[in-house]
Amino acid sequence: MATYYIGVDVDSKMVELAIEKNAKIIDRYRVPTTIPAIREVLGSIGGTKFLTFEEGPMAGWLYRNLKDNVDDLVVCDPRRNKLITCDGDKDDSIDAGKLASLLRGGYLRAVHQSEDIGRIVLKQWVSLYHDKVREAVRQINKIRARCRMYGIRIPRRVLRDMVSRHQWITELKEKDLAEQLAVLWIGYSS
Asked: In this structure, which of 7, 37, 153, 154 has its CB flanked by the most CB atoms within 10 Å?
């Protein structure tokens, strides 16, 4: 039974698949980034199939939907791969071929992918929370910096309480600053 190593370079619109057998690329496919299209390619390959692609925004989705179509699936760490393959030409089909070779050689570091949808959704919510906190801190820093341009320091209560904020802004003597802050507070409050 033949053994195939399949490297996949993923893009939001298209995926490049490079199929390696006996240390040679024997076939390449360029298909839309849809599960049916990728499954069709994988289904056309007989024998033992090892598949890899790099960790990215679509990795979990691809992993959950393709793991049953191959004998082994490795989602690998792209930072480590860069150290190994940073020389030479680079494009999607070349990258897919390099991934297949790295998979065959055992040079890839796997990135764990959860199969528990509850855990996946929890991680997404935690990530969203962290993004919102970072964005809020960024907005507050912009507001403080804008006030420093006028030699003004914002009282803490203004940052936390909308009533105090509104009163403080209306009492500002620098009307330019008040208008700018009103715009910046929109970004903070949303």
From this structure: 7
